[in-house]
Amino acid sequence: MPTISNLQKARAAYRPKLPAIFAANGIAVAAVDGAKTESIADQAAIRGFFPNTYGLPLISFAHAAGRSASKPLKVGVILSGGQAPGGHNVIAGLYDGIQAVNTGGELFGFLGGPSGLVDDKFKIINGATMDEYRNTGGFDIIGSGRTKLETAEQFATVASNCKAHGINALVVVGGDDSNTNACALAEHMLQQKTGIQVIGCPKTIDGDLKNEQIETSFGFDTATKVYSEVIGNIMRDANSAKKYWHFIKLMGRSASHIALECALKTHPNVCLVSEEVAAKKTSLQQIVAGIADVIAARAAKKANFGVVLIPEGLVEFIPEIKVLIAELNDLVAHVQAEFDAIESIDARIAFVQGKLAAATAPVYASLPKTIQAQLIMDRDSHGNVQVSLIETEKLLIDMVKAELKLRAKAGSYTGKFSAQNHFFGYEGRCAAPSNFDADYCYGLGFTAAALIAAGKTGYMSTVRQLNRPTTEWVAGGIPLTMMMNVERRHGKNVPVIRKALVELDGKPFLAFAAKRDAWAVETDFVYPGPIQYFGPAEVCDIPTETLRLERG
Ligand code: FBP
User: Which among 173, 204, 208 is the best mutation to test ligand 1's pocket, defined by most ligand atoms within 8 Å of the CB?
Assistant: First the structure.
């Protein structure tokens, strides 16, 4: 038995609250078909891609006596992609739901993400195993992975592995890409008449898997609370020492939801929002000038300290860097062998520099050498640059320093600039889930079991009305095809679940935009402190600002 902390011991006793329908009736519920659905765009094309799962109705649940007498379920589950707090509670909800249907039910946890399904690597999750992981962070109960499950060959292998074990349903816990693939898997299973159902669950700390039906992805609440706690601590340090500017990069591969949420919670002097940078076509030099303006304005008030929040995906949204990255991705792919043969990083940089187009070559040349090197290092499995490895926070510090030097020379800046850099991402992905995520995830898992018991496939499990007390949370199902549109990826038109970026006319961004000028010059820091698991509801159960503003 591994050693566990006192908090973990106390937390193991927490009983997550279920959505109202299950709290009142257990699994004695029936699925009720609502209105038929259409995809959010490109309806004819999406119908063509998914003839068997397109147009399914929305699902809600109603009390139905006698439902608990159903036959035992044999379900497989995978955790896919980056860790997010609450994954273990999705599995706990699923496990308890399966047991509620019939105590003879079985849960197969496929190991290491989607590859576990293909390679048939699994462990049976029993009651004792489950109890060790309730309300804990991490995905370590079965591990996760980023293997893409998308080919007909993989689908056929998955079907035969499931049949061999008598598995009648799969639950895919993942983000937009994993659930896009879950939809294709559901379609395959129906087309091949395998009888195997597929249900998705919305996971990602990035908060970019959301829409009318999915109010938030799980993990966003806990992760942003952890980052906000640490940002608050840094703010207090900055306000005590009064000598450092802290440049903090925050995870979130593309969308800036995490940075925006942390800004709303902590009131930094600057928070960049990638989607705004793209919309306004702000250049890197303009971003640098904007930050330097804030630093100069605070220096004029003798405040030579502050905090700047930077979303992880920023570089890909800056117009000239976006073009540069696209060209570099193509270039490195086309001359891969030649490129790999060059040993020194200086020679690689010179090689790339010589091959760039006339418009992009000066952009590349203007960047510090470390960033030039990071832009041409190892690609991800799609051949793209790995943005999380680009040290945008250091790039901005260097450029701001240079800009302030020029201003000092010109006499328009007289402050002192000393900077520290940070990157917060992994620190929050496996935190013990907040009460919100513990309850939400348990509800998502239990709902997935109810959807399976009702014979549904091609759905994502949903729990809604999350801005209200848990006693008013509503469980249901949304067809995966409903969230889809067609996008061009790697030269092909493909159906994908649409990623939700920050909307510049959305309430969270507008609330931030209304305050940011004041936060820039004043020291209006907020120190949220650590997540509280025990205590009054107004401390323990507060949802994110994003959810509160979006849902009222
Ligand atoms: P998912 O989209 O799979 O949930 O992952 C999110 C994320 O945490 C991003 O914020 C980050 O850019 C990425 O994963 C890091 O990936 P890795 O864990 O492979 O380093």
Answer: 204
Burial of 395 (C-beta count, 10 Å sphere; 0-12/13-18/19+)? buried
* Distance from residue 166's CA to the centre of ligand 1 (Å): 33
In the CATH hierarchy, which fold is given to the domain comprising 314-385? Arc Repressor Mutant, subunit A (1.10.10)
User: Which atom of ligand 1 is the closest one to the Cα of 387?
Assistant: 12
* 533 C-alpha to ligand 1 centroid (Å): 26
Q: What is the per-residue pLDDT across 154-171, written as a single tens digit (0 to 9) for each? A: 999 999 999 999 999 999
Q: Which residues have any ligand 1 atom within 6 Å of their CB?
A: 81-82, 84, 175, 204-206, 251-253, 312, 388, 429
297-320 pLDDT per residue, tens = 999 999 999 999 999 999 999 999
What distance in Å separates the CA atoms of residue 129 and residue 106, rounded to the nearest whole number? 13
Among 57, 50, 55, smallest CA distance to 476 is for 57
Task: Quote the pTM value.
Answer: 0.95
Task: Decide which of 3.30.450.20, 3.40.50.2300, 3.40.50.450, 3.40.1280.10 is the CATH code for 18-205+434-491.
Answer: 3.40.50.450
Q: What is the mean pLDDT of residues 38-66?
A: 94
pLDDT of residue 66: 62
Q: Where are the domains of the chain?
A: 18-205+434-491, 226-250+252-283+294-312+391-424+522-552, 314-385
Give φ, ψ of 502 to 5 degrees.
Answer: -65, 130
